[in-house]
Amino acid sequence: MNILVIGAGGTGGCIGGYLAKQGEKVTLIARGEHLAAIQRDGLRVKSARIGDFTVHPPAFTTESYPADRLPAPDVIFVCVKAYSLPSILPFLQLVAAPETVVVPLLNVFGAGRQLQESLSAAVTDGCMYIYAMIEKSGVITQPTAIFRVLYGFRHDQPHTGAAVLQQLETVLKNSGIDASFTPDIEREALLKFSFVSPLGAAGYFYGAPCGAFWEAGEKQTFFLSLVREIAALGKAMGLELPADLPERNLALLRDMEPEGVTSMLRDIQSGRPSEFDGLVARVPRLCRTYGVACPAYDRVVQKAQAG
Description:
The protein is α/β, with parallel strands linked by helices and 307 residues long. The protein folds into two domains: 2-183, Rossmann fold (3-Layer(aba) Sandwich), CATH 3.40.50; 187-306, N-(1-d-carboxylethyl)-l-norvaline Dehydrogenase, domain 2. 45% of the residues lie in helices and 18% in strands. It contains eleven helices and 13 strands. The strands form three sheets. A six-stranded parallel β-sheet has the order 5-2-1-6-7-8. A four-stranded mixed β-sheet has the order 4-3-11-10. It has a three-stranded mixed β-sheet with strand order 9-12-13. Strand 7 (101-104), helix 4 (111-116) and strand 8 form a beta-alpha-beta unit. The longest helix is centred in the middle third of the chain and has 22 residues, at 185-206. It is globular.
């Protein structure tokens, strides 16, 4: 398969690295010093799942990508931050052929539907469970072993590209990734969102790392309130989440590094653009649309508005 990965950070770097290690035809889109290091020395992945390795896939910027000389990708993984979607859309429109399947793997909920509005290629929904980041230019570190990728068609979407997506599941599994081409992706994506959004919101609200929410107390109670508000939103949307969702998300939280913070909080603290709108502020907007109360999320958004 010809696979293009847009965004070679923690998520895209791992998925592209694992696939390249397995011998798949992978091309990366990156930028800046990270791109320069990959082009010079290869992409090094320090993986708690399969061990450390270095691969040498071709890598370009969106501007330097030789679309006229390369075959159209069978699959495009979109692994950028949500705020970057508008900027990469012209590139996607250029490189995605009608038979290409686009698989967005973002933290936010609903990116596939958003992209589909502007692309003729089939765009699935997708989500990914991984803890990984750029350690330095050209080096991705994955300190925990979890690596799960889910993707599939939305309930109202034609199943164009199903054979490609079935083959992709096998390719991903052969590369050491826990992959699933699922018929229930909207629920799965909201289930993932029910963890990353409350963690991002609570971490921002308290300016605290993951370990601050491990034990019973004010911070954990607030995190669980956010989780329950996502569950109520899902019910209103017809996407019933598990009854034990708070307990499940606490277990996931305790698998994180205690001093680790979300990428959203790191970006905010560094004064960089962040995914706050898609991860946090969008939730109250959706709740108003579906008539769901979300006082905990309202408090987080109010804090952000107050500066």
